[in-house]
């Protein structure tokens, strides 16, 4: 079985729903508890055995690279004050993975498919994991679900596999509903980005974890920009018409999006309620609020 070691993380968006705070830094650096959003994705990828990670960031913005680069002065200060453990989670990443920072060219269209085009030379001829920067997998052991996604890709000899999760019909217009094969239940026959509820083929949607072969680059090269954006859903849809694209339904409550302030707050509360250091105080705080 081929060992997939590459991942591409999309982190080049404007994050306008988080303005004005993202005027100063990318939304992927907004903290969830004591770590930025994007760090959870790196830990997830490493947990699944992925060791080469490309972060696609906004052109001209060095913030993500600066965050993930060792700072000798800070290290010296922490050593002198006996606080070196505060950087243990970052040292884990530096030890386990090789990071590459790729600016997304302004000549590429806006949209969640463009980061893959920016990473074309990094991808080369290898299959890779693609991760949306504002989608979080909430799990006890990071990488557990992603490992299953990688296993399915190999088992099916797929051109792509997509993480999917059932959502309420009332929310389906926010996402990319899936059309499944009538005979082969896990096979994807279509993905339709942000269509009206009446046109949605199901209330299962793709979310930001994929494993794809380099075939996806061919789909992207001929794809049209729709309403000013290049959609990853359209590339998966196109590939599903000619290739082998499969789905893996994620466990209930695994996927949480952090793409707007309300959902970001929900993620913080969810993780705080699971955290051994914070859960007791948070439960007491929420109880007092409701009393």
Q: What can you see in these coordinates?
A:
Helices cover 34% and strands 22% of the residues. The chain is an alpha/beta fold. The protein has 2 domains: 6-259, Spore Coat Polysaccharide Biosynthesis Protein SpsA, Chain A (Alpha-Beta Complex); 261-291, no CATH class. The protein is globular and about 60 Å long.
CATH topology of the largest domain: Spore Coat Polysaccharide Biosynthesis Protein SpsA, Chain A
- In the CATH classification, which architecture of the largest domain applies? Alpha-Beta Complex
How many separate domains make up the residues? 2
C-alpha termini separation: 56 Å
CATH homology-level superfamily of the largest domain: Spore Coat Polysaccharide Biosynthesis Protein SpsA, Chain A
CATH class (first level) name of the largest domain: Alpha Beta
Primary descriptors:
9-stranded mixed β-sheet, 291 residues, alpha/beta, single chain, two-stranded antiparallel sheet, globular, Spore Coat Polysaccharide Biosynthesis Protein SpsA, Chain A
How is this fold's topology laid out?
Blueprint: E1 6-11, E2 31-32, E3 35-36, H1 37-47, E4 52-58, H2 63-67, H3 72-80, H4 88-96, E5 98-104, H5 114-118, H6 120-123, E6 128-132, E7 135-137, H7 144-156, E8 160-166, E9 176-180, E10 188-191, E11 204-212, H8 215-221, H9 232-242, E12 245-249, E13 255-257, H10 261-274, H11 279-290
Parallel strand pairs: 1-4, 1-6, 4-5, 8-12
Antiparallel strand pairs: 2-3, 6-11, 7-13, 8-11, 9-10, 9-11
Put the structure in a nutshell.
This protein has 291 residues and is an alpha/beta fold. The protein folds into two domains: 6-259, Spore Coat Polysaccharide Biosynthesis Protein SpsA, Chain A (Alpha-Beta Complex), CATH 3.90.550; 261-291, no CATH class.
